[in-house]
Design brief:
Length: about 150
């Protein structure tokens, strides 16, 4: 009978790819002149990062909130409203009960999806909730990061 265990530590691999792919996704997000191939790679790295987070033994709701938020952001950038909403809603689910900045970012993701959809009323509703959360963030640096992100929505 053969032993199917890998000759590496899967948790080490999950830790590596969850973080590395997350950071690679940000490189794509920050690139204003992405090609169509870059857009696909951005989606692939975001999804890969999230999947590896879901496989980690040390995963927390905060990690999943961030991962789902990033995937929602990517789908918003790609103009895929339904997917952006879907992942933002899951982000909000994982944000429940953790620090207010993560709830704020979940509402930011929902607002961004509605911005892409062209629904200003819903976007403003989510923006109001996100700003309320920002007001509850104790750390000035964390609050500023959220507020800067919210300022990109119009």
């Amino acid at each position: 009978m053969s032993d199917n265990r890998p000759d590496f530590n899967p948790q080490t691999v999950h830790r590596y790819f969850s973080a590395t792919c997350f950071n690679q996704t940000w490189d794509f997000i920050d690139n204003p002149s992405r090609s169509a191939e870059d857009d696909l790679a951005m989606l692939h790295t975001a999804m890969t990062s999230l999947w590896h987070w879901t496989q980690r033994e040390d995963v927390t709701p905060k990690n999943l909130s961030i991962g789902y938020w990033q995937v929602s952001r990517v789908y918003a950038l790609l103009g895929q409203v339904d997917n952006a909403r879907r992942y933002a809603e899951v982000c909000l689910k994982y944000s429940d009960g953790i620090e207010p900045e993560f709830v704020g970012f979940a509402y930011e993701a929902l607002a961004r999806a509605e911005m892409v959809a062209g629904d200003k009323a819903k976007m403003n509703e989510y923006l109001t909730k996100a700003r309320e959360c920002a007001g509850k963030v104790d750390d000035p640096e964390d609050r500023e990061i959220l507020e800067k992100d919210l300022a990109t929505l119009n």
